[in-house]
Amino acid sequence: MPNEADTCRRFVVPALTLAGWDSAPHEIGEQRTVTDGRILPVGKGFMRKPAKRVDYLLFFNRDLPLAVVEAKASAKHVASGMQQAREYAEFLGLRFAYATNGREIMEYDAFRGSEDLVECFPTPDELWARYRIGTGFVEDEDARKLLIPGNHAIGKDARYYQRIAIQRVVEGVLRGDRRLLLTMATGTGKTFVAFQICWRLWSARWNLRGEHRKPRILFLADRNVLVDDPKDKMFAPFGDARFKIEGGEVVHSREMYFAIYQALAEDERRTGLYREFKPDFFDLILVDECHRGSSRTDSSWREILEYFEPAVQVGLTATPLREDNRDSYLYFGNPIYEYNLRQGIEDGFLAPYRVHRVISDWDAAGWRPDKDMLDRYGRQVPDDEYQTKDFEHVVALRARTEAIARHLSDFLRKEGRKDKTLVFCVDQEHALEMRKALIDLNQDMVAENPNWVCRVTSDEKEIGRGYLGKFQDLDTTDTTPVILTTSQMLTTGVDAPTCKNVVLARVVGSMSEFKQIIGRGTRVRDDYGKLWFNILDYTGSATRLFADKDFDGEPARVTEEEMNTQGVVEHPAEPDDEAESALMASDSPGDAVAMGRLQPDPADGPRKFYVDGGEVRIIGHLVYEIDPDGRQLQVASYTEYAARKVRSLCPNSRELRSRWADPRLRQETIELLRGAGIDFEELAATAEQPESDPFDLLCHLAFNAPLRTRRERAQRLRSDRKDFFDRYAPEARKVLEELLDKYTEHGLAQFVLPDILQIPPISKHGQTGEIIQLFGGAAPLREAVTNLQNLLYAA
Fold first, then answer.
1. What would the DSSP string read from start to end of 4-27?
2. Is the Cβ–Cβ distance between 182 and 165 less than 8 Å?
3. Are residues 573 and 619 in contact, defined by beta-carbon separation less than 8 angstroms?
4. How would you class 29 by CB atoms within 10 Å of its CB: exposed for 0-12, middle for 13-18, buried for 19 or more?
5. Angle made by CA atoms 508, 513, 517, in degrees to the nearest 5
6. Which helix or strand (DSSP H or E) is residue 357 part of?
7. Where are the alpha helices (DSSP H) in 386-485?
8. Whole-model pTM?
C-alpha cells in the first residue's frame, strides 16, 4: 500500500514543480527541519528530542516562505493532514497551508478563514498576489521593498521565529506603523533580528520622506557593551556607514548610527547632544532593552525618544508585560511578535538549566550581632535581625562571602574547574571580596592562569572590558578568565555562549532582571559541548521567581542544598518552614532602607558595617522537580519522579513485564522513559542498587515489587528452564550462556545483535557469519535471543 513517502515522490514534488515552485528565486523546502529539538537531561548528560520537521515549505524567495504542505498516504482522506498543516502554518507564521493525499489537494487560507478543495497548487506569483492583497501591499513599489533580501553573507540564516519577527517589523514599517515592539527572550538573537531589519530597509532605500536615499538609522541602548558589540560585529557589513555618537562629536553624513542615552542626554554640564540633530533626522530608531529607562514616563531619557518623534521607533525587549515594564508597552504598543524563554527551550534553541538552591543558616533564619559588637572599623553594629536582602547592603559578613566562595569552588571541582562562570554580587565591593575569596581558595588554578578569576565592574573600565572580551572568546584558553565576579554590569547584553554556571550571590528583585541574568547562560553551543547550564542560587531568588505564575521557562531540575561556614554541603533535617518562607518573600535589595534598617552615612565613612567573624551552620538538602504543567516547583526525588513516569506508562507490574519481555516494546518503553529524562545508570546509583536489572528496579520503585539483582534473575532462568538451553547444540548453547553472563555483568545492552557477536568471549566461536550458522541462520538466532529475553523476564 502506498505510504506518505510514495505520495511525496509520485505526486507532491511533480505537482509543485509543475506549478513553478522549483525555479529561482522560488524554492521547495523538502523535509525542512524548523527546530533543533528540546534538550533533555538524562543522567549526567543530555539528549535532544526529535526536531520539528515539515514535509514542504514553499518559499517565494529565500527570506519569505508563503505556505506549508503536509502529505499523507493515498489511502487516507485528504483532510486528515489539514489540522497538522494548519498547526505548522500557525507555528511558522504562514497564511497558507495545504494537505494532500496524492489524489486531492485541500487549501487553507488564513486571510479568508476557509478550507477548500483545489485542483492544483497555485503558482508562486498567484500566491504572492493573494498575500499582497491580504497584507495590504497592493502597490508595486511597496511590494518590491518587501522582497528585498536580508544579508546572507554573515554566514547564518534566520531561524523560523527570527524570520517571523523580521518580516513583521519590515511589513509594519512599510505599512506606515510608527511604534513597534518585539518581545524575544534573551539568547534568541535580537541583535541578529535588528541587523536584518536594518539591512533590508537600508538596501530597499526606504525612508520617511520617500526620497531616493538610504535611511538614517539609530541603534540606541543604555550601556556601551550593548552598542559596541553589535556595531563592531553583527553590523560590520554596513562598513563605513556606521558611526558611534560619543565624546560630544556629531557627524551628519553617515547612515547607521549607534549611541547610548548618556552620550545624547542633557546633564548638568551640557545641553542634550541629541539636539544637534533635527527631530526628523532619523528615519528609524531601534531601542534595545527598551524595558529599561527610556520608555518609562518619568525617565529623563524619554525626552530623547519624544524629540525624535517623527522617526519610526522599534522597541526590543526580552521581558513580557509586567508591572515593572508596563510603560514600555504603553509607549510602543503590544508586541507584534513574542518568542519567550519557554518556547526557546522547547524548540531546543535555548539551553535548559539545573538550579542548585544553597542555603546558609544566616540566610534561612537571619543574622543578629552579639551584644555591643564592633565592626572592622570599630563602630557598633546596631542590634537588629538582618536578612538576606540586608547582607552587603547594610552589613557585610565576610564569613558568608567566604562560605559561598568555598561552596562554589567545591562545586567547580566536581563539575569542571574550567567551566565559565558568572558570579552576580550585591555591589562592586562585594564583587571584589568574592574575587579575593575565590583566589585564596583556588591558588593552584590562579598559579596556572593568573586571570582564572577576575572582577568586571564599571570600576575596571577598559581593563574589565578586556577581561570580558576574553571571557566571551571561544578560542582562547590560557589567559581566559574562567570566573567573572560582577554586580550590575553583566546582567544584560553579554553574549557568553559557553557560560556553564550563573551564580546568584545577591537578591534579584524583579522578574525582568532575573530573566536577563539567567539569559547569560541560555546560549547553546553543541560544538563546544554547551547544552545546558547551572544556576547556583545562594539567596533564594531563583526558587522564588520560578514559582512566579508569570515565569515562562522551567528548569530541568532544581536541587536545594545547605552549607556550613566551610562551604560544605550537609544533609540533616529539613529547613525551618517559617525561616524559608521569610527568605522567599524577601523584597529588592533597596528595601532595607525603606523598612527602617539602619545604614551608615557615607559622609561618616564606610557605607555599611563590616563583620569579619562568625560561624555559618547548615540545616538540610531538598530536591525540587517541575510538576506536570511545567510551572510549579514541587519537592520530589529522582526515584519518585521515575516511579510516577513508569506508572503513567504502565498501570501495573504485569503490563510492564509484558512490554519488557518483548525486545521491540522494551526498546520503545526505554526510549519513552529516556525522553522523560530517566537514565537507568543514574537511577540505579541514586537508589543505591547498581546490581539490579532495570526492570526489577522500575517495578520496585513504581509498584513496590521485590528487588532482584541481574545475577539472581539469570540464575533463576538457568535453574528453572534448562529445557530451553538443551534444545540447542553444545556450541550454540554456549553462546547463549555467554550472552547471559554478559547480561549479568553489564545489563540489557548485551543483547544487541549482531554487535555482541564481535565481542569476547562470544567472538571466540568464529566470525559473525559462522556464529549465525551455529543457530541455522540469522532468523533462528534472533528467535533464540528473543526467547532468552522472554524467559528471563517471565518470572
1. HHHHIIIIIHHHHHHTTTTSTT-E
2. yes
3. yes
4. middle
5. 85
6. strand 353-359
7. 398-415, 428-441, 443-448, 461-472
8. 0.79
Query: What's 630's DSSP letter?
Result: S
C-alpha gyration radius of the chain: 31
What's the rounded mean pLDDT across residues 116-131? 97
Instruction: Give the span between the Cα atoms of 174 and 182, in whole angstroms.
Output: 16
What does the alpha-carbon distance between residue 204 and residue 212 come to, in Å, rounded to a whole number?
10
Of 174, 203, 163, 165, give the one whose Cα is nearest residue 57: 163
Give per-residue pLDDT as tens, 601-622. Answer: 545 567 899 999 888 754 543 4
| pLDDT at residue 492, rounded to an integer | 57
Q: Are 504 and 537 in contact (CB under 8 A)?
A: yes
DSSP assignment string, 290-341 = TTTTTTSTT-TTHHHHHHTTTSEEEEEES--S-GGGHHHHHHH-S-SEEE-H
CB 540 within 8 A of CB 388: yes
List, in order, residues 6 or more apart from 81 with CB less than 8 Å away: 70, 71, 72, 99, 100, 101
305 to 286, 297, 308: CA distances (angstroms)? 10, 11, 5
> 276: closest CA among 268, 284, 264, 288?
264
Instruction: Give me the helix-helix angle, 663-675 and 653-661, nearest 10°.
Output: 120
Distance between CA atoms of residues 27 and 20, nearest Å: 9
Percent of the chain with pLDDT over 70: 84
CA-based nearest residue to 195, from 132, 142, 153: 153
Pick from 513, 520, 478, 517: nearest CA to 498: 520
Model confidence at 681, pLDDT cuts 50, 70, 90, reads confident
Average pLDDT, integer, range 521-529: 84
In contact, 118 and 103? CB cutoff 8 Å: no
Confirm if 555 and 353 have CB atoms less than 8 A apart.
Answer: yes
Cα separation, 667 vs 670, whole angstroms: 5
* Axis-axis angle for helices 710-720, 778-792 (nearest 10): 110
- Distance set, CA 644 to CA 597, 628, 639, 707 (Å): 47, 11, 9, 18
* Among the listed residues 314, 317, 315, the one whose alpha carbon sits nearest the alpha carbon of residue 341: 317
How far is C-alpha 252 from the chain's CA centre?
41
DSSP reduced 3-state for 130? helix
Q: How confident is the model at residue 355 (pLDDT cuts 50, 70, 90)?
A: confident
What is the percent of the chain with per-residue pLDDT over 90, rounded to a whole number?
A: 49
Determine how many CB atoms are found less than 10 A away from the CB of residue 321.
18
Which set of grid coordinates corresponds to residue 134?
491580504
Distance between the two ends of the chain, CA-based, in angstroms? 40
C-alpha cell at position 162: 527570527
Cα 154 to Cα 236: distance, rounded to the nearest angstrom: 9
